[in-house]
Amino acid sequence: MSFFAAEEPEFSTFVLGNAPLKKLAGGFDWVEGPVWFGDHDCLLFSDIPNNRILRWSPATGITPFREPSNFSNGNTRDREGRLVTCEHGTRRVTRTEHDGTITVIADRFEGKRLNSPNDVVVASDGAIWFTDPHYGIASDYEGTRAEQELPCNVYRVDALSGEIRAVLTDFHCPNGLAFSPDEKRLYVADTGRMFQDDPRHIRVFDVGVDWALTGGRVFHTISPGCADGMRVDAAGNLWPSAGDGVHCIAPDGRRLGRILVPETVSNICFGGRQGHRLFITATTSLYAVSLAIRGAVRPAR
Ligand code: MG
Q1: For position 141, which CATH number holds?
Q2: Could you tell me the sign of the dihedral formed by the alpha carbons of 169, 296, 254, 3, in that order?
Q3: How many domains does the chain have?
Q4: How far is the CA of 227 from the centre of ligand 1 (A)?
Q5: Near ion ligand 1, which residues have CB within 5 Å?
Q6: Looking at the domain assignment, is residue 300 inside a domain?
Q7: Which residues are in the SMP-30/Gluconolactonase/LRE-like region domain (predicted)?
Q8: Residue 253 in contact with residue 220, Cβ under 8 Å?
Q9: Does some domain include residue 295?
Q10: How much of the chain, in percent, has pLDDT values that exceed 90?
Q11: 36 CA to middle of ligand 1, Å?
């Protein structure tokens, strides 16, 4: 039985009929934040409850990268290839410099502590955009229980000035986020507080002059489950995580198909030597599948 479930004809042009869904490693508790380092031929990802970042490479399999990781969650790379990490435990976003030292990008807004930065993306101007839901301070499982001081906002940190701005303030719990390949759109998942009637959708914003956001309509409602992390491919399709695997959503909001994964998926990223391997963090395991399309490479603008 195939784990590819096509729902629209276009889906077959993005997947490979005979590519396996491979489980690369398992035994973790809640893996998240995959990021590909092509120059090191490896993937980094967080194992949040175990307070560590792990490294996977085809040559050496799983090895430790950082432990403790301050209950890290989402990871990405900036325009200079440096690792950018969301940390629940320290309630901050950090950058790992090329020499290994750690720079704090953001830990407060208007004098109050951030909640627990969840996922992060770097725009072509170097600005760091991240979501700040409360999940990492809601229990002692994925961080440390603490009082919430700020609403669950989306923030942008300017690359030059370091100024932090709340750019989206009307979310229940913003989670995964991704720009379209031309950076004219920003997609942000809202996963709410995980109650029955909470939002389980992805909203889309138009990105204008000086990165001003307008719009914000519901772009797609995920079923089953909700969207956590997501990435965009070179054709502009959005690949969000979902309760039954990874979904493929066309730029017009139609679901084209699904990759069915045996465990609840938290996040994905494109990588591999050709850039068309989809790495999937799913509860206790790391999976990968090769696709017929690469991840988006966003040009400077
Ligand atoms: Mg997330």
Answers
A1: 2.120.10.30
A2: negative
A3: 1
A4: 8
A5: 118-119, 175, 228
A6: no
A7: 31-283
A8: yes
A9: no
A10: 92
A11: 17
